[in-house]
Automatic annotation (TrEMBL):
<keyword id="KW-0028">Amino-acid biosynthesis</keyword>
<dbReference type="GO" id="GO:0009073">
    <property type="term" value="P:aromatic amino acid family biosynthetic process"/>
</dbReference>
<keyword id="KW-0520">NAD</keyword>
<dbReference type="Pfam" id="PF24621">
    <property type="entry name" value="DHQS_C"/>
</dbReference>
<feature type="domain" description="3-dehydroquinate synthase C-terminal">
    <location>
        <begin position="187"/>
        <end position="333"/>
    </location>
</feature>
<feature type="binding site">
    <location>
        <begin position="135"/>
        <end position="136"/>
    </location>
    <ligand>
        <name>NAD(+)</name>
    </ligand>
</feature>
<feature type="binding site">
    <location>
        <begin position="111"/>
        <end position="115"/>
    </location>
    <ligand>
        <name>NAD(+)</name>
    </ligand>
</feature>
<feature type="domain" description="3-dehydroquinate synthase N-terminal">
    <location>
        <begin position="73"/>
        <end position="185"/>
    </location>
</feature>
<dbReference type="InterPro" id="IPR030960">
    <property type="entry name" value="DHQS/DOIS_N"/>
</dbReference>
<keyword id="KW-0862">Zinc</keyword>
<keyword id="KW-0456">Lyase</keyword>
<dbReference type="Pfam" id="PF01761">
    <property type="entry name" value="DHQ_synthase"/>
</dbReference>
<comment type="function">
    <text>Catalyzes the conversion of 3-deoxy-D-arabino-heptulosonate 7-phosphate (DAHP) to dehydroquinate (DHQ).</text>
</comment>
<comment type="similarity">
    <text>Belongs to the sugar phosphate cyclases superfamily. Dehydroquinate synthase family.</text>
</comment>
<dbReference type="GO" id="GO:0008652">
    <property type="term" value="P:amino acid biosynthetic process"/>
</dbReference>
<keyword id="KW-0547">Nucleotide-binding</keyword>
<dbReference type="GO" id="GO:0000166">
    <property type="term" value="F:nucleotide binding"/>
</dbReference>
Amino acid sequence: MQSVIPVPLPQNAYAIAIAPGSLDHIGSWLTGETLTLKPQSKILVVSNPMIFRAYGQRVIDSLTQAGFQVTSCILPAGECYKTPATVQKIYDAALENRLERSSTMVALGGGVIGDMTGFAASTWLRGINVVQVPTTLLAMVDAAIGGKTGVNHPQGKNLIGAFHQPRLVLIDPQVLKTLPMREFRAGIAEVIKYGIIWDAELFEKMEQAKRLDQLRYVDDELLQEILTRSCQAKAHVVNKDEKESGLREILNYGHTIGHAVESLTGYRVINHGEGVAIGMVAAGQIAVEMGLWDQESCDRQLSLIEKAGLPTRLPDGMDIEAILTTLQSDKKVQSGKVRFVLPTAIGTAITTDQVTSDMIRSVLKQM
């Protein structure tokens, strides 16, 4: 099963290709009809040690056979390394290998590698090509698509960044077979998000699955449905609102409180998807308290999050007042007011700045 989903942006159109086995044919994808890069141009493959060990040589061999001049840059793994200091290592590799404006960076890894590589590509020589080759479910359905790149500041997540659209997103579902269970669940959190904010049918299909906490319980047909529908949802929203000035804000559902929890635990206690799951539980209950959403739908969301083996409560020892303080440095704050994405039905969400600190505090105490 292979599908190509267009992202027809006026200035930076590209495609998302979902193709089993495509990792061994990346050279053909970069020189084919979907994306025509100049043969003999330079490519810097950016990855982390574990992913590079598993897939790096296969990618390099395919790119070399297609005529590209290929080098690599290996970065430490983990959200805690998503910093300007780590991006400096990409710049050093770009300088050492004399990357030019016709050169390309290939991000081979999860969301952390994709974000840092995209940011480096957006700023090297004022912007060069980047191709996203996501290796985690979370990156496949979310982080690799849409052109949001960036790194973390000690005071908050992704506060330093730029919009820089990839030239291609190449998804090989077969790499998920080596993905740790916890990382798979983290990706399912983003898929549940799409079900809540955009695609009620996707939500219902996941409700019908017996288990969602491990890849081995998700058959190929459902996995293809998850990948395709999630990518279509993200592509549609990004096409309507590339720079997050309106509609695209709904993609932040669960992220407002989720990012705060991630940041306050030093990116070492919970991962991004787990933070989003906790944030969705909180946002769902806030929506109920505000009369925007019904309790039955909120309970269905909670059940699906639990089915995916994701956390639904705050980590032990979390300081609720610290969460409220951290929310004030969120990127989505406008005129001092935190903007929340809240569901109004399964498949529909709105953005509002009418959520009070007392309401957030009350819901978080319940968690």
